[in-house]
Amino acid sequence: MARRRKVYEGKAKVLFEGPEPGTLVQYFKDDATAFNNEKQGIITGKGVLNNRISEYIMTRLSEIGVPTHFVRRLNMREQLIREVEIIPIEVIVRNVAAGSITKRLGITEGTPLPRSIVEYCYKSDDLSDPLVTEEHITCFGWASPSELDEVMSLALRINDFLYGLFIGVGIRLVDFKCEFGRLYQNDDVRIVLADEISPDSCRLWDIESNEKLDKDRFRRDLGGVAEAYQEVARRLGILPEGGPRDLKGPAIMQ
């Protein structure tokens, strides 16, 4: 497929003009960043793995009725997506204390939370993605009250499904970040899951050992980042024993 005009480039992905109106091509890079881009690196093969893992998860979520921007995978590093208007909010769902919440609230890392917590951050690199409330979001018009209700409902539904999915392969879903967008179709506007869901955007710990299988290995200089991502893909049944290669589609888990 011929490469088209670049529409946007972020830290981990590039968006190109799609083959037809209302579509984009999302390209997954090997670039890794942390701490608001203060730490940078390259993890060979990360883009291939994240493309496959995100494809698998988006496909499974679509099967249970969660609307997403995902259309299909095009090749090892690219997928076709629907063009959406991104809501400038990062939605974080937490099941276990880790990351910033441990510092903000003085909670020991690894402490199970009494219930899942949903937090919101305003998407702004210049402001380091500050934590915001529902009042901020609706007051400044980033999302309407009804849109925010839909975002909250979808985020919790996604969490419930992913928690069970990962438990089934021996992984604990500690927390994850997701984004949503407005999909315009004729006169209708629909809130859909956008961006990606992968070890870049989730904290995933082995249930038995608590070994980190996610981007924290890069943040904390633990090493073995690519191997951890491969392990997640292997457990989900989408990575052959020979390592990453181009496959036709995600394996169906029994």
Short note summarizing the structure:
The protein is 27% helix and 32% strand. With 254 residues, the chain is an alpha+beta fold. The relative contact order is 0.17.
**N- to C-terminal distance:** 33 Å
Largest sheet: 7 strands, antiparallel
Approximately how much helix is present in the residues?
Answer: 25-40%
Looking at the overall shape, the CATH architecture of the largest domain is 2-Layer Sandwich
Compute the average pLDDT: 93
User: What is the name of the CATH superfamily of the largest domain?
Assistant: ATP-grasp fold, B domain
Kindly state the number of beta strands: 14
Provide the descriptors you would attach to this structure in a database record.
32% strand, alpha+beta, 5-stranded antiparallel beta sheet, single chain, 254 residues, D-amino Acid Aminotransferase, Chain A, domain 1, 2 domains, Phosphorylase Kinase, domain 1
Layout of strands and helices, then pairs:
Blueprint (H helix, E strand, L loop, with lengths): L5 E4 L3 E5 L5 E6 L2 E4 L4 E4 L3 H18 L6 E4 L4 E5 L2 E2 L2 E8 L3 H6 L6 E11 L8 E2 L1 H6 L5 H23 L3 E15 L2 E7 L7 E5 L9 H4 L5 H11 L19
Antiparallel strand pairs: 1-2, 2-3, 3-7, 4-5, 6-7, 8-12, 9-10, 9-12, 10-11, 12-13, 12-14
What does this structure look like?
With 254 residues, the protein is of the alpha+beta class. The chain has two domains: 6-84 and 224-235, Phosphorylase Kinase, domain 1; 86-206, 2-Layer Sandwich (D-amino Acid Aminotransferase, Chain A, domain 1), CATH 3.30.470.20. It is 27% helix and 32% strand. The chain has six helices and 14 strands. The chain has helices at 46-63, 100-105, 134-139, 145-167, 216-219, 225-235; strands at residues 6-9, 13-17, 23-28, 31-34, 39-42, 70-73, 78-82, 85-86, 89-96, 112-122, 131-132, 171-185, 188-194, 202-206. The strands form three sheets. Strands 8, 9, 10, 11, 12, 13 and 14 form a seven-stranded antiparallel β-sheet that branches. Helix 1 (46-63) packs parallel to helix 6.
